[in-house]
Here is the input.
Amino acid sequence: TGRKICRIGYDLSSEIEYLLTKGQPAKYALHPTLDRHVELLRRILLESGHSFLEVLPRPVDAPYICCLTHDVDFFGIRRHRLDGTLAGFLWRSTVGSLVQACGGRKRWKQVFKNWKACLSLPAVYAGLKRDFWNLFEEPHTKKNRQFGSPH
Here is the structure.
C-alpha cells in the first residue's frame, strides 16, 4: 500500500507521557531524555522520505532565544486535604509570618492578610469563599457570582 512502518522497540508515547507528567528520575537528570526521543522521531521522519514541517527551538540565525513562561505550582488550595502542601501553607502563613514580621522581614499588614486566609479555609473548603490559590477564572456559576470569582 506504500505505507512504511517503523518499529522502535518501546512505547514512545508512554515514555514521553511519563516524562511530561511525572518527570525524569533524579539519577538521570543530566541526560536529555526528552530531547533524545524528539531526535529519534526527527530521524525516523527524515529517513521515511515524507515531507514534514519542523518548528525549530530557536530562529535559524539567532544565537539564542528568550521565552517567557509562568509556572503554576499550586492550582487551588481546595485540592489539598491534610497533606504536606496544606501543612506547609498553614505553618508559613501563621508561625512563619509572625517570625518574619518580628524580624522585620515582613509587614504586619501581610501577616494579618495571611492569618485571614488561614481563618477563611473552612469557608473555602465548603465552597462559600473563593479559593485564593486558584488564579484562573472558574466557570461562571451562581456560587461564583454570589461570592465573587477570582477575576
In short: Residues 142-151 have pLDDT under 50 and may be disordered. The CA atoms of residues 45 and 52 lie 8 Å apart. The longest helix spans residues 84-102.
